Amino acid sequence: MTADPVLVEIVEGTLASVEMEVETAIARTARSPMIRDAHDFRAGIHDVRLRKLTGRSYSALVQPIVRDFPVEDMNPGDVFFHNDVYLSEGGIGHLPDLCVTVPVFHDGQVVAFVQAFGHHDDIGGAVPGSMPSHARSAFEEGLMVPPIKLWDRGEPNRAALTIMTRNSRMPDSLAGDLDAECSACLMGARRLGELFTRYGRAAVEACFDAIIAKTTETFRRELLSKIPEGTYVWEDYAEHDGVDPPRLHTQRITLTVDHTAAAPLLIDFTGTSPQAKGPINHAGDYADGVFLKKWLAPILRNLADTPERMAELDVNEGVVPLIEMRFPEKGTLLTPIFPAPTNARTFVILRLLGVLGGVLAKATGGRMPADQETIRYTGVYGDDHEGRPYLMREVLGGGSGGRWYADGEDTIHVVPDSRNIPVEFAESRWPFRVERLGLARDSGGPGKYRGGLGYDKHIRMLRDASFMSIADRSILSCWGVAGGRAGRPFLVTVDDVPMDGLVDDHPVKAGELIKIQTTGGGGWGSPLDRDPAEVAADVRDDKVSLESARTSYGVVFTGPDFPPGTLLEIDHPATTELRGRLRGRSPDAFFDRGPGYLRLSDGHPDVDLP
């Protein structure tokens, strides 16, 4: 059936509206700070052919549900649940990500699915939060649940819910979050069913085909056409796995571009390091890499003609036919063998975004942003003033990379729509005081276009507690590109004592101060080409120090010292002379990985790959 173009717009808008309504319902009814306040959850809509129809955000997969539960046996009011990493077909990365799936019915048949998954406070395991940084096995990470029917014809499976809440240190918030997610998806399924009732199944499914085909054609014509044919290689690294001493855990992409092929992009992960002993592995080689294709595809949007056009482009199942993936043999960081631990898989899956960005930068002569922050979890746990256990865990963002046309953004969150926990809420709920929440000066990589800045957050503990952290980029930096410099890495101190990136239970005494500085993005272009007036504005705004203005940007100001907020006067002759001297010291490298790379590579400089 040919899709009516007007109806396509109506259906596309309805899908986006239903997805937003599901997420809004979850945010307003969930109980845990991670879901309700930090918004670390996602919703998605899929058709009966398991294709993702919405593109505002990523989501998990329906494949594991229909694999274990035939579509013809499903009933209205059913809710399916899973969080098992190795039985999720690559859609779930670690056990705290709990996923619920609800079938949509029309005339007694399944016609679509509404799905939500989010990061929950605690699902058992060796440490509070279910993310033991030194885990050697998935069995240490919490309760693994393969696909099950959690609700049957509208009736919750109380036995399954009791087992899950019994295994959680935060049973009330877990039960409340699951109820919110199940109810929201059931509501979304009713809304979507109304669309089929109004227009008929054949017309709506024709619109689904048109929506996906439009994405395929748009990406092929507007984005992939910008990449010259050829083969390009780039790699980046995770720095530690929580078990072995810090070293370079390689993630490599060999990108082959052939515009005459059915799938113009071939992404080969050969050269990726063996699976780690610790929990940084990601099970990505399932379902032909369908999840990874949709996960990585947003990076391609940076090739759009304008930032405005980039913001208009959604990523749905239409990107899948454009990408072929080749995985190495079983037993690597991307192809781990059960029961390899995975709770810190962000070290790999988020690094891959930067690896693809780097290989595209090589292919396009630098027309890609520099490297950006990756997710990290920091928090404290203990007993509150009334002796009740609590867990505060936060997903703080960092800086994005400088772009060929603009600076990077400050304190962005790589998980779409996620955010820091409001100070007022935190102080009223947990026994600590937030003494500072601002920008980490000098954290953004210097460049013609500066990298975005990370957070600078200070927490004063009012009771004894334990500090926890799951964070990479504490040694390695976000790399700069096209002559830009690397950003500053992640840093946490407790009472001025530096912490490792992976910490489970460092004791913090009442009165001690936790200082958190998150990662800054890499810079783009030589910092000696940055407009001195923009450097002066950064110094005035306390984003760049006077020392960095001189040593990194070669900008000299008149007068001995200036407090933040002062209008600065540039000494133009001295600036010209200093920049000339700085240019002569060493040529700009296309990539700058920062000093942490030399530490982990035993002093060997980065060698560009072919």
TrEMBL record:
Keywords: Hydrolase. Residues 4-527 form the Hydantoinase B/oxoprolinase domain. GO terms for biological process: glutathione metabolic process. Its EC number is 3.5.2.14. The keyword Hydrolase applies. It holds the Pfam family Hydantoinase_B. This is N-methylhydantoinase B. One of its GO terms (cellular component) is cytosol. It comes from Sphaerisporangium rubeum.
